[in-house]
Amino acid sequence: MKKRSNRIIKINEEIRREVSSILSRGLKDPRVNHMTSVVSVDTTPDLKYCKIYVSVLGDETSQSDTLEGLKRSTGFIRNELARRINLRNTPEITFVVDQSIEYGINMSKLIDEVNKPKGE
Fold first, then answer.
1. Average pLDDT of the chain, as a whole number
2. How many domains would you assign to the chain?
3. Which of 87, 93, 77 is nearest to 42 (CA)?
4. Is the dihedral of CA 95, 37, 101, 40 positive or negative?
5. CA angle (51, 62, 54) in 5-degree steps
6. Is 108 or 14 the better-scoring residue by pLDDT?
7. Does any domain span residue 65?
8. pTM of the model
9. Is 120 within the bounds of a domain?
10. 50-92, pLDDT tens digit by residue?
11. Which of 1, 62, 89, 115 is most buried when burial is the number of CB atoms within 10 A of its CB?
């Protein structure tokens, strides 16, 4: 496991917060599902690149459409990020779909089914 400096951790959190705000208020691409949330951000130590992990609630088509919309909107999101966060260089952004929230919801449903009394 890589050790992250406190500075990178703070920058990751700030980028996560701002991109969440941009997605909820500033992005007008109809392909991006309104149930999209930013799960985490992983920025390289030199601040040149960052991966933004997003979770999309919906089916496979909705996820692929949202990812395509995010990729097309990368320039706008990067410009907004540069305006909102005071960094010397704004990192290149890559969006990655994270299945962890959807996986957790499905596991919770399965556990509920197993724990259901047999009479129901």
1. 88
2. 1
3. 93
4. positive
5. 20
6. 14
7. yes
8. 0.80
9. no
10. 999 998 888 889 889 999 999 999 999 999 999 999 888 899 9
11. 62
SS3 assignment, position 110: helix
Q: Who contacts 94 (Cβ-Cβ below 8 Å, separation ≥6)?
A: 49, 50, 51, 52
Beta-carbon contacts of residue 65 (< 8 Å; ≥ 6 apart): 31, 32, 33
CATH of the domain at 23: 3.30.300.20
Sign of CA dihedral 52, 55, 56, 58: positive
Query: What amino acid occupies position 37?
Result: S
Owning domain of residue 32: 6-115
DSSP assignment letter at 31: T
* Cα–Cα distances in angstroms (integers) from residue 77 to residues 8, 17, 52, 105, 108, in the given order: 20, 13, 11, 29, 33
For residue 40, pLDDT over 90 is answered with: yes
- Reduced to 3 states (helix: H, G, I; strand: E, B; else coil), residue 65 is helix
**Are the beta carbons of 45 and 8 closer than 8 angstroms?**
yes
Q: Under a CB-based contact definition with an 8 Å cutoff, are residues 43 and 85 in contact?
A: no
